[in-house]
Design a protein that fits this description.
The complex is a heterodimer of chains A (about 300) and B (about 300).
Chain A: H1 29-41, E1 45-50, E2 68-72, H2 77-93, E3 104-110, H3 111-117, H4 119-127, E4 132-138, H5 175-180, E5 186-191, H6 195-206, E6 211-217, H7 221-225, H8 231-240, E7 246-250, E8 253-258, H9 267-270, H10 286-304
Helix pairs in contact in A: 1-6, 2-4
Chain B: E1 2-9, H1 14-27, E2 31-36, E3 46-54, E4 69-72, E5 94-99, H2 103-110, E6 116-120, H3 134-146, H4 151-162, H5 167-183, H6 215-218, E7 239-243, H7 254-258, E8 264-266, E9 272-274, H8 284-288, E10 294-298
Classes of the chains: A alpha/beta (about 300), B alpha/beta (about 300).
């Protein structure tokens, strides 16, 4: 990536634009990613926020943003973004806004909205070629209401609605592929624990036009049941075990931006989280552990062939 | 009617305590309400839950403003205005504090007219959020102090409410609950039920009347940036990260990048500075610092942070 201004860690911002004092949980992996993203996106943004954990960012009369924030129902953030973008375009056309004053329209949603409730509105917005950036903080469940399963919940995880000995029976949807199938301007996965990779991708996304997705894994101490101090470690393990492939789709191609040379066993990631404790206690669920490992191996093997 | 308010931090089990106590009252044939305050409060933040119990139908709703018993699971909350521990506490109300200091100290410090009962700290932990079984101990204490809940009713409630967490956890909680229940037997029945409030005796709060204004004026729009910094989330903290300047190498500001709240800023010389007014004490910085230059110290033993009062 020679074109990036983020060559080394030293190039990362040392001053932060997002305000403190929000009511998000201590150790929130979504907030970790959001503040890294906001540093690079900058304050010339309108954030359209679907209901979710990040609802708590702006509890009246408080906001951590430097620019505008608009709150919508869970499924309708892309529709809200369309309205905002149209309004900005009209103001530009009438000369009431200069090109320098134009703002980025940013949708901010959790996985509940991005993978489920809001998917139809999102697909429609991509279809219309809406010029917006879609940020999803994926904590693999409806975290703000007590971690019920969502379309992003991984196989075998315990959630408030999947408490059996084998956890959630379904499989995590591939939102990256769903977006890429629409042939949008840009799609990328990131995680707050890999800030340099994240910075380069936000830089890419920022400089493109059209529908763009930034999908961030958001390790969640509350919903995944681990100590808040481990947020960054768990995020890094998700990459090192191959659970969370860091990749981007641009110009019709999918490129993996950080391929773990020697993947750690997925157990290293699972056993640190209470939501997977039933795979190890009271006895090891060998079959399920092997199935989870096999799916990860298959993903990376397919990539090489 | 008994009105009991539990105060603790998110993660200490106050919601569970209120459920256990409510179910125990129910097992004794009472009509019961139990609920946590619903809000945005998270791990470490001040939380309260409440229980109403009466022999007749309960028509009161909402938060308890005039409690008969206040239970304080974490003594550091008393000094915090946002926790409102002392709201409505009068000579009739019993205050139970989980503390290492004796009752006369609290009585004097808070100038309380009513009785103070101390639940001594069973064990000392650096991080008070790591103290297990505080919630059940508080439920057991409340059951004993009201004096109308037998151990059998409490034990059954505890088993029912914790059943989903597994047998081992139920057993781990029964012991401490029984010890607290026995320990407070001299104070059995020291909490007296308050009178039932009737509609005719209702005193209207001192409302501030607001004019009905145009939607553009009265709509909840925020016209300033970064107003969230007025919220002092530093109060959530039970552990405080402290940077050892001698060991800090001024790296590529790992701590500042990973801090989820953006509560670590880097000055011109490349040194990080923690904003204690907002740091929630998650300790991601301490876990990530490559030179192990950030130490965690228990908040209750720490001196007041220099910038604890002012926003950055």
């Amino acid at each position: 990536m020679s074109e990036t201004r983020f060559q080394t860690m030293k190039d990362l911002p040392s001053c932060h634009l997002l305000g403190t004092g929000t009511a998000l949980c201590a150790g929130c992996g979504g907030l970790e990613a959001l503040h890294e993203i906001y540093d690079i996106l900058g304050e010339k943004t309108v954030v359209v926020n679907a209901a979710g954990c990040m609802t708590l960012l702006a509890v009246y009369p408080f906001t951590p943003f430097r620019g505008s924030w608009l709150y919508t129902a869970m499924a309708s953030a892309p529709a809200g973004a369309q309205g905002v973008r149209d309004a900005l375009d009209i103001l530009l056309a009438k000369g009431r806004l200069t090109a320098e004053e134009d703002l980025q329209t940013v949708v901010l949603t959790g996985d509940g909205a991005a993978y489920g409730m809001g998917l139809s509105a999102t697909s429609g917005a991509i279809e219309r070629g809406l010029d917006f950036l879609y940020l999803c903080y994926d904590n693999e469940g409806y975290g703000n209401t007590g971690q019920q399963y969502s379309g992003a919940t991984p196989h075998g995880a315990r959630t408030a609605t999947s408490k059996g000995p084998c956890g959630y029976p379904g499989y995590k949807k591939d939102l990256f592929a769903i977006w890429a199938a629409h042939r949008p301007a840009y799609v990328a996965t990131v995680v707050g624990a890999e800030p340099l990779d994240l910075a380069r991708k936000i830089e890419q996304a920022k400089n493109r036009q059209g529908p763009r997705l930034i999908l961030s894994l958001a390790p969640c101490p509350t919903g995944w049941d681990f100590d808040p101090s481990e947020t960054a470690q768990i995020g890094r393990l998700a990459v090192q075990t191959g659970v969370w492939p860091l990749k981007e789709y641009r110009d019709g191609q999918v490129v993996h931006t950080k391929v773990p040379q020697k993947r750690l066993p997925v157990e290293d990631y699972l056993k640190r989280q209470g939501r997977f404790a039933h795979l190890f206690q009271p006895q090891r669920n060998e079959a399920l552990l092997q199935e989870i490992q096999a799916r990860i191996d298959a993903y990376w093997d397919n990539l090489q062939s | 009617m008994y009105r009991i308010r539990f105060h603790g931090r998110g993660g200490q089990g106050m919601k569970t305590a209120s459920r256990i106590l409510g179910t125990a009252f129910f097992n004794e044939g009472f009509e019961v309400q139990d609920a946590p305050r619903y809000g945005a409060e998270r791990r470490g933040a001040p939380i309260f839950a409440y229980v109403r119990a009466a022999r007749r139908a309960i028509y009161e709703r909402g938060v308890i403003r005039h409690p008969d018993l206040v239970i304080v699971a974490d003594e550091t909350l008393v000094a915090m205005p946002a926790a409102a521990v002392l709201q409505g506490v009068d000579a009739h109300c019993v205050v139970l504090i989980h503390s290492r200091e004796p009752a006369p100290v609290w009585q004097h410090r808070l100038n309380l007219a009513g009785p103070v009962v101390i639940l001594p700290l069973a064990e000392e932990r650096e991080d008070r959020l790591a103290l297990r079984q505080i919630g059940t101990a508080c439920a057991a204490a409340a059951a004993r102090l009201v004096g109308v809940v037998a151990w059998t009713a409490l034990e059954q409630a505890l088993r029912d409410e914790l059943a989903a967490l597994g047998d081992a956890l139920v057993e781990a909680n029964l012991g401490p609950a029984r010890r607290v229940y026995d320990f407070l037997s001299p104070q059995q029945g020291c909490v007296a039920p308050g009178p039932v409030v009737a509609a005719e005796g209702y005193v209207r709060p001192d409302w501030v009347e607001l004019a009905f204004e145009d939607a553009r004026v009265s709509a909840p729009a925020i016209h300033a940036a970064l107003t969230s910094e007025q919220v002092q989330t530093g109060q959530w903290r039970t552990l405080r990260p402290v940077i050892d300047c001698a060991r800090c190498k001024g790296c590529w500001w790992v701590c500042s990048t990973f801090c989820p709240d953006g509560a670590i800023q880097v000055d011109e010389s490349g040194r990080p500075r923690i904003d204690y007014a907002h740091c929630k004490g998650c300790m991601v910085c301490a876990a990530q610092c490559p030179h192990h230059a950030i130490e965690a110290i228990p908040e209750q033993d720490a001196p007041p942070a220099e910038d604890e009062r002012g926003a950055k």
